[in-house]
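Subject: sequence -> structure tokens, single chain

Hey, anyone have a minute? Need the predicted structure for the following. Not urgent.
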Amino acid sequence: MCLKEKDLYEPASKALLQKFSEKGECHLEVTADAIGEQLKQVLDDHAVSILETEKKKPDLLGFLNVKVGYESKKLIVAEVKSKSLTLENIYQLKMYGEMLGAHFSFLISPKGFSEARRRFLIHRYGVLQISTGGKRISVMQLKEDTLVPDEELCSDNPFDP
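Reply:
Had a minute. Here:
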């Protein structure tokens, strides 16, 4: 059975919420069609306007409330793909992550990258780097209802604030 991308939004969202629940209060929405009002209150108005004008929206978007003496909202952006991942998927996610100033950027698929693409990314480490915040894109494989990081491409714990 071939799943469609939109069929994976809810399982991916639930898996992310589960991982972030131990880090703080997490809010996550499926935003492939529209960005909700609660999210718009924490996002940069200019970035939201451009994304809407360009008709570009990440599949999942949200934030993690972290309390470290003060309250901080760390933005989460995720792209979910039903097929094997491509370099184009990385650059799509980079666009969202950089435009929105995301702290967490996840590329999620049940299939992951082909071996040739993985080898390329291992040798071109910077391709997965996001220019804002110094974080890297976390490549995750969705297995049933669990997210498994690609350990060769994700050296740090992708859920640490």
